[in-house]
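agent: user wants the structure for 6-phosphogluconolactonase from Xylaria multiplex. delegating to structure tool.
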Amino acid sequence: MPGKQPNLFAFREVNGLATALRSYIITCQNAGLNRHDVFKVAVSGGSLPKTLAQALLAEPKSDEDVIKFDKWEIFFADERAVPADHPDSNYLLIKNELLDKIPIHRGQPIVHPIDFEQLNDTQELADAYEGTLVASFAKGDSVKLPIFDLLLLGAGPDGHTCSLFPGHPLLRETDAWVAPIEDSPKPPPRRITLTLPVVTHAVRIAFVATGGGKKEIMREIFEAGNGLPCALINEAAGDRVSWFTDEAAVEGVQFPRRSFL
Ligand SMILES: O=C(O)[C@H](O)[C@@H](O)[C@H](O)[C@H](O)COP(=O)(O)O
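agent: tool returned. relaying tokens verbatim.
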């Protein structure tokens, strides 16, 4: 892998992973607040929201260990083409796991769901969500790409992340910030997703991948690459990428682990 390598952290248990993830997110949050007095983060679905909730809802251990939700602006890395109250909705998942359990004062944190109730056409929906990103990240200026402070992503057993699937033409998208997909190999087929250039442009990108079911694809991502979406992100963003895994997920993976300080 050329250039700087991603950080691979492997924890014995998800508890240790969640503690480290909390501390990593606070570091990213504080950097975002220093930069622009807001923390702009995008999240995806799968098992991530549950681990995220475990990390973020934990009791603070010190005065520095503070999650400033009132400064957060939360976006979605991808979404399925279903209403926000549908069981397949990533928004519903994160709402149930996390948002309903944190204090919301005066509309803070700001949450930007992708709501298929308003528009059912995936291209129109992608354009509308891109408009949401433009309003937040560009503010009237011409900006080539949005810069998220942090993306919190999962890794599928086929090496997909967001709704960017292996071998899919969407991986070659260079202009759009948000794109529709009508033929996702993982159901449901209709979705919208952040594009690869947006993902790799983020200040920090964190993947959470746990369980022995991930070890084959983790080997492929870290040892061969094979153009898998997760590997493309590792290659493009290098040490801006951090993988939070458990030992089961990286058993046999030939790639140096870093210790989490
Ligand atoms: O939209 C989806 O289909 C899921 O959100 C999916 O992208 C998920 O994030 C990965 O498959 C990892 O899932 P796990 O973390 O549950 O393994």
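agent: one observation worth passing along. Residues 14-36 form the longest helix (23 residues).
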